[in-house]
Amino acid sequence: MKKSVLTKYIICCLVSLIVFVGMMGASGTSANPHDPTDALLKLIAGNVRFSSGQSAHSDISAERRKQVTRGGQHPFVTVIACSDSRVPVEMLFDQGVGDIFVIKVAGNVCNTDEIGSIEYGVDHLNTPIMVVLGHTHCGACTAVATGADVHGGSIPDLIAPIKPALEKVQAANPRLYGKALVSALVEANVWQSIEDLFQRSSSTRRRTNDGRVTVVGAVYNIETGTVKWMGTHPEEESLVSDMKYNVWE
Ligand SMILES: [Zn+2]
Predict the structure, then answer these.
(1) Domain of 126?
(2) In CATH, what number is assigned to the domain containing residue 78?
(3) Number of structural domains in the chain
(4) 134 CA to middle of ligand 1, Å?
(5) pLDDT 10s digits, 171-214
(6) Which residues 6+ apart lie within 8 Å of 196 measured at CB?
(7) Is the pTM of this model over 0.85?
């Protein structure tokens, strides 16, 4: 993680704690931020409101719909999350219409369609932050961790990108099993998705390199409603280096 990004992330978390009470009833209608740190702070504050039962819900009004119809969409964050019905992205961040560019797919995996959608959010809509959001009790991760029979069809191909994450978890912790294995896999799969995104998206690498976007991982707890922020990928510097991919543009 770059020091400047790490510092901003730490400051962001501290500020979020300090302003906790003040933000509890805050409105989500303020102008969307263009700075990665401001965008992250807005998400943290929104999740604090949601998880404490103080959601503002202010950006879902008829006026807001008219506003984003006339003015177009200007979301401040791109989020890829699991399709799980217990992971309602706009709700859990207490944001409204036009605030979040969302990609939902089982296991929050980054394959071709998902990466193309992320690139639209990051490159075309210029969101300053991009979040890979895993979640507790993920069925896709559980299926991979337990080697469950997923009944053919297209599901095996869908969850295949999770398998490298499982191999990494098992290599690092051979004795993990059951719930502990699934929990570790959920986090490893967030890192895996970020890795897959960087490996296959030169534009995301470029934008991360020059600071136009910050890509962070997070895990949503479906029971408490809280988001655990994981920060940027521990090997981001290497992953976003075009030299690693022998690309000279
Ligand atoms: Zn899931």
Answers:
(1) 3-245
(2) 3.40.1050.10
(3) 1
(4) 7
(5) 999 999 999 999 999 999 999 999 999 999 999 999 999 999 99
(6) 109, 110, 111, 115, 161
(7) yes
